[in-house]
């Protein structure tokens, strides 16, 4: 999965804006390496994920592993959610046309096809959010979901709105 391609320079539980930067020394602890907290707590170019790259191509795991490229949590999240939205909107059109299903029948068919995928991605997102201390990444992921809700409405992929509401 893409989690192995995440960057190492992200906020951790010991990174607090008001905490003491002096290393704590004791008889049993070694001197910790101090990190530059200003890079961890700045938005910088991270906003481009939702500003310019919201509909850009998805991250291909084997290609990024070959090039040893690392990504921020919000880039990986955007890629997964965009792949889901893109495939779901195409699948909804297919189900509607192929099975000649309309309204509730089409939505039920769609939900039966995507139920396992939705549950897997929701559990994966929940696990990532619980394990991170990067508040900026979480904020950007929320903003990505809001933008994909608008895109789902534009594409008339209304069953995706229920998934995004759970996210």
Automatic annotation (TrEMBL):
One GO CC annotation: GARP complex
| Basic and acidic residues: compositionally biased ranges | 13-24
All copies of the Vps52 C-terminal domain together span 4-165
Q: What InterPro entries does the record point to? A: Vps52 (IPR007258), Vps52_C (IPR048361)
Kindly give the Pfam families that the UniProt entry links to this protein.
Vps52_C
Gene Ontology MF terms in the entry: syntaxin binding
Name used for this protein in its record: Vacuolar sorting-associated 52-like protein
Its source organism is Brachionus plicatilis (Marine rotifer)
Q: What is the lineage of its organism?
A: Eukaryota, Metazoa, Spiralia, Gnathifera, Rotifera
């Amino acid at each position: 999965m893409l989690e192995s391609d995440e960057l190492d320079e992200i906020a951790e539980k010991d990174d607090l804006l008001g905490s003491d930067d002096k290393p704590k020394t004791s008889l049993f602890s070694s001197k910790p390496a101090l990190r530059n907290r200003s890079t961890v707590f700045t938005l910088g170019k991270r906003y481009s994920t939702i500003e310019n790259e919201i509909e850009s191509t998805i991250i291909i795991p084997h290609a990024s592993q070959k090039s040893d490229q690392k990504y921020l949590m919000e880039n990986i999240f955007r890629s997964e959610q965009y792949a889901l939205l893109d495939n779901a909107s195409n699948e909804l059109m297919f189900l509607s046309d192929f099975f000649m299903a309309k309204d509730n029948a089409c939505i039920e068919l769609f939900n039966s096809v995507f139920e396992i995928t939705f549950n897997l991605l929701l559990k994966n997102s929940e696990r990532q959010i619980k394990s991170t201390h990067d508040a900026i990444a979480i904020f950007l992921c929320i903003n990505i979901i809001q933008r994909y809700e608008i895109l789902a409405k534009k594409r008339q992929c209304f069953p995706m709105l229920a998934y995004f509401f759970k996210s």
